[in-house]
Design brief:
heterodimer, A: about 250 residues, alpha/beta, 8-stranded parallel beta barrel, globular, B: about 200 residues, Rossmann fold, 8-stranded mixed beta sheet, 4-stranded mixed beta sheet, 14 strands
C-alpha cells in the first residue's frame, strides 16, 4: 500500500530560507539547497519550496535554487508562490520542479488549473487552498496569503478544482496555522470526503502526535510542516519513526 | 552514451540530472542517428497516452525506436513505460509502440484515491539484473492514474494499490519499463538507473 508522506516546506525569499534555520554541518545559514539536502537525508518524501520573493530579480535567484536542488536531491520537488501563467508553470518545471502549487491565481483564474493540467498533466498541478471556518461545517477560501476572503465556499471550490484537472490539493487551515495545536481535522475530513484526489494536510502541526492523529482520523495522504522542521523541534526522521511505531505506513 | 529521447513530453531534465549525478554520459536528443549511435536509450514522459504517441509520431522517431529497442538496452519511464504496450485507453483508444504485449487502462478499484501518488513498495516478481541490490519492499515514487495490464511473464516487480500495479516490466530481452520514477525514488531509484546502464556492457 501507499505510504503516508511527510513533507517539509521551505519558504524562500531572494534565494534564502526565510525562517532562521541552522542545521548542523551547514555553513551558510538559510541556504535552501543545503536545507533540502538535509531534509532529503532525514527521509523527507517530498520537498516544497515556496517563493515569497516580490521582485523579478528574486524570481531568477529562486529558480536557480530549484535548479541546483534538482541536481542533488532525487525526491519530488514541489514549487509554489508567484505562479500566474502557463509560461510560469513551464519555466518552473523546466528548472527541475516536479509539481507546481498554484493558490491565489487559481482562484482568480480557474482556467489556469485546466490549462496547466491539459498541457503538463494533472500529476504536476497541485492546488494550494487557504481556508477559514465561518460556521458549522462551513469554510471559505482566502487568497493572498490568507489576507483576502473570497467568500467562496471551500467544498464547492474543492469539487471545482478536481473537475478542472488538479492532481492534488494542499489544504492549509488559517485557523490552525501557527497555533501548534494540531491539524484541522474537521476541515480535512470534509475536504477528503468531497474529492477523490490526494489531499495534503497543512497548518497546525506542533507535536509529533499531530502527524499520527491526522493520518488516523482523516484520509489525508500527506502532512506538511515548515517551522516545526525549520527550528529543529522535530526531524522528519523522528516523525516517521513515531508514525511507524503507531502502525502508520511510512517509507 | 545514453540517449534521452526528447519529444516534448514531460520532465526529461530530472532524468538527466539523475544520470549526471551518477556520472553516466547522456544526451537529450530527437535525432535518429544519435539514437542509433547510443549505447542505451531512455524514453521518459508524463502526460496523456494519446498526446505522447502523437508527439512521437510527429517526431518521426517511432521506426528508429522500434528498431533500436530490439538491439540495445531500452528503458521507458512512467508514460514512457505505458507507451511500450500495444494499446492505451486514456481519453480514447490509442495504439502504442507494441514492444511489450498488453494494454494500459484507468485505475478503477472502488474507493481509491487517484492518481496513485506517493511512495509504494516494490514487490519483486522475478529476478532481473535491473533490480540488482534492490530488495523486496523497497519504496519507489509513483504518480499515475492509468496502469498496465500484462502477462506475469513480462512482470519484474509490482506494487499493491487496490490491486496489482505493474511497476517494472520487460519484454524479456532489451526492453524495460518503470511505471514509477526512478529519478525521483531516492537511493533505490538511482540504483535502478545505474543497473540499467550496466546492462550496456553485457549487451
Amino acid at each position: 500500500m501507499l505510504a503516508k508522506r511527510i513533507i517539509p516546506c521551505l519558504d524562500v525569499r531572494d534565494g534564502k530560507v526565510v525562517k532562521g534555520v541552522n542545521f548542523e554541518g551547514i555553513k551558510e545559514v538559510g541556504d535552501p539547497v543545503a536545507c533540502a539536502e538535509e531534509y532529503n537525508k532525514q527521509g523527507a518524501d517530498e520537498i516544497v519550496f515556496y517563493d515569497i520573493t516580490a521582485s523579478y530579480e528574486g524570481r531568477g535567484v529562486f529558480l536557480d535554487v530549484v535548479r541546483e536542488t534538482a541536481k542533488k536531491v532525487f525526491v519530488p520537488l514541489t514549487v509554489g508562490g508567484g505562479i500566474k501563467t502557463v509560461d510560469d508553470i513551464r519555466e518552473t518545471l523546466r528548472a527541475g520542479a516536479d509539481k507546481v502549487s498554484v493558490n491565489s491565481q487559481a482562484v482568480k483564474n480557474p482556467q489556469l488549473i485546466k490549462d496547466g493540467a491539459d498541457i503538463f498533466g494533472s500529476q504536476c498541478i497541485c492546488v494550494g487552498i487557504d481556508a477559514k471556518k465561518i460556521g458549522d461545517g462551513k469554510w471559505t477560501v482566502y487568497i493572498n496569503g490568507g489576507r483576502v476572503d473570497m467568500k467562496l465556499d471551500l467544498i464547492e471550490w474543492v469539487k471545482k478544482v478536481q473537475e478542472l484537472g488538479a492532481g492534488e490539493i494542499c489544504l492549509n487551515s488559517i485557523d490552525a496555522d501557527g497555533t501548534k495545536e494540531g491539524f484541522d481535522i474537521e476541515m480535512l475530513k470534509a475536504v477528503c470526503d468531497a474529492c477523490t484526489i490526494p489531499v495534503i494536510a497543512s497548518g497546525g502541526a506542533g507535536k509529533i502526535n499531530d502527524f499520527y492523529e491526522v493520518f488516523e482520523k482523516t484520509n489525508a495522504t500527506a502532512a506538511l510542516a515548515a517551522s516545526l522542521f525549520h527550528f529543529k523541534e522535530l526531524t522528519v526522521g523522528e516523525v516517521k519513526e513515531y508514525c511507524k511505531g503507531k502502525n502508520v505506513l511510512v517509507r | 552514451m545514453v540517449a534521452l529521447i526528447e519529444y516534448g513530453a514531460g520532465n526529461i531534465f530530472s532524468v538527466k540530472n539523475a544520470l549526471d549525478y551518477l556520472g553516466i554520459e547522456n544526451k537529450l536528443t530527437a535525432d535518429a542517428d544519435e539514437i542509433r549511435n547510443a549505447d542505451a536509450i531512455i524514453l521518459p514522459g508524463v502526460g496523456a497516452f494519446g498526446a505522447a504517441m502523437n508527439m512521437l509520431e510527429k517526431s518521426g522517431l517511432i521506426p528508429v525506436i522500434k528498431e533500436q529497442a530490439k538491439i540495445k538496452p531500452f528503458l521507458g519511464i512512467c508514460l514512457g513505460m505505458q507507451v511500450l504496450f500495444e494499446r492505451g485507453y486514456e481519453f480514447g483508444e490509442f495504439e502504442g509502440l507494441g514492444l511489450i504485449p498488453g494494454k494500459v487502462d484507468l485505475i478503477t478499484d472502488p474507493g481509491l484515491i487517484v492518481p496513485h501518488m506517493g511512495w509504494n513498495k516494490l514487490e519483486i516478481e522475478q529476478e532481473s539484473p535491473i533490480l540488482d541490490g534492490v530488495t523486496d519492499s523497497d519504496y519507489v515514487y509513483f504518480v499515475h492514474s492509468y496502469k498496465a495490464f500484462c502477462d506475469k511473464k513480462n512482470l519484474i516487480a509490482y506494487s499493491e494499490y487496490g490491486s496489482v500495479v505493474p511497476a517494472m516490466v520487460t519484454d524479456g530481452k532489451y526492453v524495460f519499463g518503470a511505471q514509477f520514477h526512478p529519478e525521483k525514488s531516492g537511493e533505490t531509484g538511482l540504483k535502478i538507473l545505474s543497473n540499467f546502464t550496466k546492462l550496456i556492457k553485457e549487451a
